[in-house]
Structure formats: structure tokens, C-alpha cells
Amino acid sequence: MADPQPDQENASPAMAEPVPAGQPPEEDTATADLQRSYDELRDRYLRLAADLDNFRKRAARENEAVIREQVERFTRDLLGGMDDLDRALQSDGTMLREGLERIRQVFLASFARHGIRPVEAMGVPFNPREHEAVACVVSDEPEGIVIQEVNRGYAREDRIIRFAKVIVSKGKEKEQEIQ
User: What are the strands, taking DSSP E only, across 18-126?
Assistant: First the structure.
């Protein structure tokens, strides 16, 4: 039969084998392993946090570059209209109206290329989502109908860029009863 060996888990410290010199005890190795694991995870966390910060900065720079490019492209589109305006100002009075109409068309075409459209206002019912009433006046038109456009409104897709400033009809003036 084999010699009975004491169970190491149930062994008392007095019965434990002595640790050879130069070798750390088991608890110190476990602590060192945990410390090493902690240091690796912390280093990994710090690297990931730095990567995320760099990603955010890069995304912000790229976003700014895209916006800058869009503004420059839109400005280039409008420069043709500005050139036409300069030529119209140098022309004689007979060609002025024709030149201004041409400039208006250039601007509208530039807006259309960028998805910007004028807001319809004349002769339609007042819509507070698209129109801003600057006055209400008595007219032959029914009440609530836009009778004059002071400033044209513009929208891009379903979003209003600028509300149309309009004058709205109050309807016909009611006759005062004489008593």
C-alpha cells in the first residue's frame, strides 16, 4: 500500500513544505499574475480610449471638410449669377430688365441643383408652416388667402430655409349697419 499523504488543502501551515529560496510563494505568483493581467487590460483600455478620441477628432475634421466643400460648391454656383449682375449693372437701361431676369434664372437654377425650391405663396391659403404674415388687409379675395408676397420663401426637401413673408386677405369689408 501507498503511504498516506496529507491532503495539501487541509494541511496546516506547519505541515506545508518549505518554499525553496528564490521562488515566490503561490500567493505572490497569483498576485503577480493578477497584476500583469490588470496592467494588460488597463493598457488595452487606454489604447482603445485614445483610438476612440482620435476617431472622433478625425470624424469632426472630415465633417468640417465636407461642409467646407459644399459651401464652396454652392458659392461657385452663385458666382455665375454675380457675374451676370455685374454685367447688367454696366449695361444701358434697355437691357437692364432682361439682364435681371437672366440673373434670376441663374440663381433659381443654382438653387434647384442643390435641392432648394421657392415656397408657393401667391393665391394659396395662408399656411403658418411655410408663410409668415406681415399684414392682413381687406380685399376681394376670401379670408385667409395670400394676396401679396413681400419676400419669397425657400425650402430644401421638407425643411423651410426661409419663410415666405406675405400679406393675407381679411376678406371683404363688412358694411356697417346704420341705426
Answer: 116-118
Which domains are present in the chain? Answer: 27-114 (3.90.20.20), 116-173 (2.30.22.10)
Least confident residue range of 116-130, 140-154, 165-179 = 165-179
CA–CA distance, 179 with 118 (Å, rounded to integer): 50
| Chain centroid, CA 154 distance in Å | 19
**Spatial CA neighbour of 143 closest among 120, 111, 173, 178:** 173
The predicted-structure confidence for 50-69, as pLDDT tens digits, reads as follows 999 999 999 999 999 999 88
CB hemisphere CA count around 10 (13 angstroms): 3
Among candidates 172, 120, 166, which has minimal Cα distance to 147?
Answer: 166
List, in sequence order, every beta strand (DSSP E) within 18-171: 116-118, 131-138, 146-151, 154-156, 159-162, 164-171
CA-based Rg of the chain, rounded to a whole angstrom? 40
- Distance of alpha carbon 126 from alpha carbon 166, whole angstroms: 9
- The number of beta carbons lying within 10 Å of the beta carbon of residue 42 is 10
